[in-house]
Amino acid sequence: MDYLQCFSQCSEVDMSKLLRSEEMTLAQIFLSQEASYNCIRELGELGAVQFSDLNEGVNAFSRNYVSEIRRAEEMERRLRFFASEIEREKLPIPADYNVPAAPNPKDLIDLEATLEQLEGETRQINANQEALLRNFYELKELKHVLNSASVFFQVGAAIQQEGLKERLTPKFDEEAGGNMSRHLSFLCGVINRSKIPVFERVLWRASRGKALLRHMEIEEALKDPATEEEIPKSTFIVYFQGEQLKMRVKKICEGLGATTYPCKEDWEERRQTEAEVDKRLEELTSILNETKNHRFRMLNTVVSSINSWIIQVRKVKAIWYTMNKFKKTETGLLHAEGWCPKIQLNEVDRALKRGAQAAGSEVAPILNTVTTRRTPPTYHRTNTLTKGYQAVIDAYGVASYQEINPAIFTVITFPFLFGIMFGDIGHGLIMFLAGLYLVLKEGYFTKRLKSYEEIFSMMFHGRYIIMMNGMFAVYAGFLYNDIFSLSLNIFGFSWTPTNFTHYEKNSSHYINPEAMYGMDPYPKGYEYKGNPYFFGIDPFWNLAENKLTFINSYKMKLAVILGLIQMTFGLILSFKNFQFKGKTVDIYCTFVPQMIFLQSLIGYLCFMIFFKWFTCGPRTTQPSLLICLINMFLQFGSPIEEHMQLYSNQMYIQSALVVIAVICVPWMLGAKPLIEHMYPRIQHASYAPIPQSYEQFDNDGEEEGEEEEHHSMVDVIVHQGIETIEFTLGCISNTASYLRLWALSLAHAELSEVLWSMVMQGGLGMDINPYVNPIAIVLTFSFWAVATVAILIVMEGLSAFLHALRLHWVEFQNKFYKGEGHLFAPFSFERVLNGQDEE
What is this structure's pTM? Predict the structure, then answer.
């Protein structure tokens, strides 16, 4: 496992490498034009350099490698054409999990020629096939017209017998051309079935009722030669008289997309024509089959290589796109600049030499490091375990360069806080097994990830988060002694309810399940044995009347203690940031008063929690800790009432803490602006954007970079005032925010208990008859299992995830984390293929 390797190597790595981003350096690269393609190809495989665009002011169409990019885009167009043809034929594309290397220039020319040749052949075959299909379906339509002609001519004979011909042929008709002949003309053809009503109305109006239409549906589905979509059609015949009316009918047919076919009135001539049509259809069917087989064989050759070609073309396009960022020097070399991790400079140099050697270039590539005042990008090395947690931190804001990275602590604190809110052995175990399955099948799903839906891809990327959340939820479930709202008696009860009248003293000595007991540990040895339950909460509390009171008090106090620990740790990390950047003023004027203020209030509250736990018994005074904290301010210096007294001299200690906390406010507000006003050099050091401990970012750099921002006295006062107000108010609000640990844990436990008692317990208690009972139990368990997974695991799990996310983003990270950096985005083929680099 990658994460086990990561943990095993932690002892051999400097801790600062884990806490902070990689040390970056700005590199200058000079390449000969003949070796540039191969060198960039090697760097793309390495993925260690983020190139800067040295041609920002140059139009995209005026850059050096526009023609090469167009060639790559033309190859992409051809590959999209092949993909559409393969999809049209419904050919399965075999999964190819091997990622080919970018082709060298010679192979690229061969690939381009191959694609051009295959496209030309495919289009020629498509054109021939379409022409053959058009001819084929036209003959089909002619055959249906000939078959329908007998019926149509029988109708025509009936028309003449019934005297309808007189209505169609007046003595003198100017529209018919003045022809006095009584012979009827006709026109046969095929038309789209949906256009028959329109055809009939237009024909009637154009001929003023002097044309007669008859039509018949074609049962066989005919297809469009271009799209091969089925189109329902009908044959028709139009009776009319005169040449002018004939021209009108033809124009109407053309306008409505109807196709007309010649048809003889003589039956023998129609039979001969039909025989010729059948013979031509047989010939066309044979030719079409051969054409389809040839097209199928050619597409099969494309199918086996299309995935490899797509990857190669995308890599080629990325190379030319990257080379468009380079600038040509007067000597004909290509000049490139980019950020690179300092630890990988040697790898970059070796990659450049491999590329030059592969190109046979006599000019060796040149790699130089440059001093600059520009802020480097932030690059954190991750593995499969830490990648998900790093994404959670980056979603809040990318760490500033060399700032402490919270992700290394979030790996533990995030699932721990999640487990506190989601604590249940059963629910946590289901979540853990789901995450473990995704982890164990990691290789299988990684290869097929693009074929899955987005929601599954998101879950897969967070597989380690799901697994560890479930693992800590199981741990918290043992602390709460809670499994599907039930308790486990692993180590034996520490309570013996011998003094209760409703205790069933029978031979079984079982506890009455309907009885509720008031748990009172006094006197020792009577109901309470004196030895607490070995791990977690005693299962006997599940039967106690004051169970909810006890659990609520326990979880609320636990939430406050955990909140203080995490906020204090956040302040310690801010101290490490100040120390690393050499900001001594911030240490004494920000960190120290903030730490004192926090411990004077919330630290003292946690002290009272522990003091009350260790000293106050069940028969002693139980003062309210919240009231004690409020009275520290509202009754400052006043004597403390006896029932609110925890220890001797409490008034003096609380008054001293209030005075210290109040002193810390002007200390945080005014000390730093005053010192920086008196000593301007301290202000310069305090706001230096780049640590001076690295020689490549010293102030002697000749390259133009970002100028340091000057902060006036007013700016510093306003900034410090905002931070002071935010921190002082945040001490109370952030502590109260940690009570969500108690609230969500309570809601989860109560909802689980309701679901068990109202669904599962009721179903198991059914007693209808021996035949119905098993069915009722199965149905009840199925409903309970589905509701448990859907509500208690998925919905409650998502809620706990979001609340744990908020505790880290707001309550923890705002103590030390600025998040004002920008991510290191190197030129990498892996990023290009994953869609992370959009060109």
Answer: 0.78
